[in-house]
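Consider the tokenized backbone below.
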């Protein structure tokens, strides 16, 4: 039978996408899955669906900060106790840059993405989504010349169109927020799942072993 497949659509701004990313990468539960990470622009999804950012909803803004800490503890994912200064930032620059990496050096997308997330959601640097911060991070992973090429490409029409297409792809698959999981089980059946609190449903749909990670005791 074919290996279960998971596509995670993500934007650096989402703490829950960060938690999902770490679980998919590190948990033995997902070790036999084919996993694809696709950078999108969350602002585009919110606009397309008419969704309201949680931080703009009274009471939910406080609740969501507590919720991300709860889930990070369940799965032992490092995360800052307080949101980065200036949260939420505009992430269009870093998402375009990550999209450029996915096209020019796809094998470097995961470490580059994790480096920015570590800076933003673990160290709490509110400027991590800006070129002056993520540029040097990319240099360490890609080398100076390739990092420069990526930054330049990120401002070009091809990469801008690619990010828009990624975002449209997520929307077409049903996304209205992040994290959004597009899953295909060993039978070839496909379904979409939203939110870190539905990760247990992802595991069950894919026929994976919950017992390999204690954090799944907290999810449906």
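A designed sequence for it:
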């Amino acid at each position: 039978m074919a290996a279960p497949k998971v596509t995670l659509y993500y934007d650096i701004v989402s703490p829950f996408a960060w938690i999902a990313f770490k679980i998919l990468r590190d948990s033995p539960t997902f070790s036999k899955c084919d996993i694809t990470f696709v950078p999108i622009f969350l602002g585009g999804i919110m606009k397309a669906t008419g969704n309201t950012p949680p931080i703009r909803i009274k009471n939910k803004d406080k609740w969501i900060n507590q919720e991300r800490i709860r889930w990070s503890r369940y799965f032992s994912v490092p995360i800052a106790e307080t949101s980065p200064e200036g949260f939420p930032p505009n992430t269009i620059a870093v998402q375009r840059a990550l999209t450029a990496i996915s096209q020019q050096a796809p094998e470097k997308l995961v470490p580059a993405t994790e480096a920015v997330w570590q800076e933003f959601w673990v160290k709490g640097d509110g400027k991590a989504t800006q070129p002056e911060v993520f540029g040097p991070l990319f240099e360490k992973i890609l080398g100076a010349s390739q990092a420069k090429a990526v930054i330049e490409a990120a401002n070009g029409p091809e990469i801008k169109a690619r990010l828009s297409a990624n975002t449209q792809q997520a929307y077409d698959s049903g996304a209205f927020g992040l994290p959004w999981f597009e899953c295909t089980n060993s039978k070839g059946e496909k379904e979409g799942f939203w939110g870190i609190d539905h990760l247990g449903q992802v595991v069950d749909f894919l026929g994976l072993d919950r017992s390999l990670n204690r954090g799944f005791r907290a999810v449906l």
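The mean pLDDT is 95.
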